[in-house]
Structure formats: C-alpha cells, structure tokens
Amino acid sequence: MTDLSYCAALKAVQQQTAQQDNLPDKRRVAASFSKAATTYDSVAALQRAVGHELLARVPMAASRPLCWLDLGSGTGYFSRELAQLLPDSEGVALDIAEGMLRHARPSGGAAHFVAADAERLPLRADCVDLVFSSLAVQWCSDFGAVLSEARRVLQPGGVFAFASLCMGTLVELRDSWQAVDGRVHVNRFRELADYQRLCDASGLMVRGFDVLPHVLHYPDVRSLTHELKALGAHNINPGRPDGLTGRARIQALIAAYEQFRQPAGLPATYQVVYAVLEKPLAD
After folding, report:
1. Sign of CA dihedral 195, 58, 90, 29
2. Domain 21-167+187-214+271-278 belongs to what architecture?
3. What average pLDDT score do residues 111-122 get?
4. Which terminus, N or C, of the chain has the lesser number of Cβ atoms within 10 Å?
5. Helices (runs of H) and strands (runs of E) counted in the chain
C-alpha cells in the first residue's frame, strides 16, 4: 500500500472483535463481499439508485470538500462518482473487504485504497471534509463507534452522509421463511429508532434524516435469492441454518412468497435510512 497524504494519514489499528449478538460477524461480511466483487455491479441497480439519492442530499456547494472518504466503497462506483463531482479533491476508498478493493483499484476514482474497519478508522483526526457511505454501515455491529469515528476524522464543518438499511427490509422474504420454518434466513437490520437515537447522541448536528422504501419486483423467488448472493448480501447472520436447504422447504418458501405477488411481480422492500450530519465548527 502506498504512503498516504495528510488526508489519509494512517495510524496503528488493532482489530476490534466486539459485536452485537444479532448482527453479522464482520469477518463473514468481509469474506462474503470479497467473494462477490466480480458479480456485484451486474446486479446493483438498487445500490446505484440509493447512492445517487444520497449524493443528491450532500451539500456539495456549501461544504466544497477537498478531501473525502468513501466509507464502505465496495467496487468503487461512488468513489469514481465523487472524483468526477469534485475534480480538485483527494479521495480515500475504504472497505473491510479486501477483494472489493482489489477489484476497484484498477478503475481509479480514489487516490488511496485502504482495507479497514469503519468502527476503527486508520485516519488521523480532522483530516477529511466529507464522509460518504452508501449501503455499508448496516453491516457494522457498533454504529455508535462508526458515528464517533466519523466525527473524529471530519474537519469542523465537515459532513457525514450515509444511507443504510433498517428493520422492515426484505420483510416479504422474512415473513415467507417464518411461515416455512421460523429460522433465521434473512439478514437482520437495526430499528429506525436506533439510528435516530444514535445520530442524536453522536455530537454531530443532524441536517437531514428520513427513511424511504425502495421496492423491487422479481419474476420469481430464485431471481431474488440469486441477486442477493451475487451482491454478497445473502444470509450472513448468526443463527442461520447450516447446509443446503431441502427441496421441500424451497417449495414451501415459493408458495408462501406467492401470497405477496403483485402485477409487477414478487415485491422485495428495502427500507432505506438517509442521513446528513455535520460536525460543529466548535467541536
């Protein structure tokens, strides 16, 4: 890895292992998304839509960021978007999945590519003007730590803009599996109220906070589950069933999910939290 500038000055980091019991182990998250690096972009329509919606909410003109951090940068799509929007800026793409960074690096966008944990950022204080994070922090077990780190690395007046998933995401798939066997087959996400509470307590000023549902439609259940696997976002929760799912249970899942069918197809609802936070000038 190359030497990093003022914007991305590295510090020594110890691996953090604490996690909430009902959220995925970050090692599984890293492995799952690394494995999906080559297939992710082919099925990332929702991720693109959410990220562009988040970009539209960032007060670029007011903040004029010269140094930005793409937190959970994945394949680097939004690192490249940020580089185009801010041609005179310097960017850091950071992700816990090294496979994603290897895939993203040849396409450029960011000046630096860093494999690290969002809960323990290897950046020094007051070094970035913008932290942008689209559909990544839902995989972090300690979102309070993410907020604290964002506040630490932001310069006064800097912005932390994030989009994340909350409870109610993939409710149709969850309810269908509940009707089959009652086991954990769908990733768990935080309650909306938890996001609100943690943001309010973060010491950052909340400039915008709301939740919007995004509903996708699929011709059949297999199309949905194939997409989740290609994204690396299939079930990585503690308590998930081990081994292959039997044919009888798959047929039962299909029958249960068919109860949700709409004229456009089988719906899959994503509840997306959008937030724009600002570090006070006098912190």
Report:
1. positive
2. 3-Layer(aba) Sandwich (3.40)
3. 96
4. N
5. 10, 7
